[in-house]
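Hi all, posting the design record for the shared folder.

TITLE: backbone redesign
STEP: 1 of 1
STRUCTURE INPUT:
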């Protein structure tokens, strides 16, 4: 069994220093904003809609993406 990954930063460091992350999907740039998830994990989130062309028609798709800092759920709560 693999060793558990520990997070090298604190919650305070993440909230202070994490910047938005640009993500490109099908040539369209979206911005993932830093946040603390309801699970207690830290990371970035995108929840948006975009249009993708299929043949000569466009369809609207829902984009939901989480980028989760591995091990952040186990960080102690501060405050």
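Okay, here is what came back for every position:
SEQUENCE:
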């Amino acid at each position: 069994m693999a060793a558990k990954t520990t997070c090298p930063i604190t919650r305070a460091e993440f909230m202070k220093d994490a910047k938005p992350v640009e993500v490109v999907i099908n040539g369209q740039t979206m911005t993932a904003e830093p946040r603390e998830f309801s699970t207690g994990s830290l990371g970035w989130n995108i929840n948006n809609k975009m249009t993708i062309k299929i043949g000569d028609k466009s369809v609207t798709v829902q984009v939901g993406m989480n980028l989760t800092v591995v091990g952040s759920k186990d960080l102690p709560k501060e405050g």
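COMMENT: Residues 11-69 form one domain.
Let me know if anyone wants the other runs.
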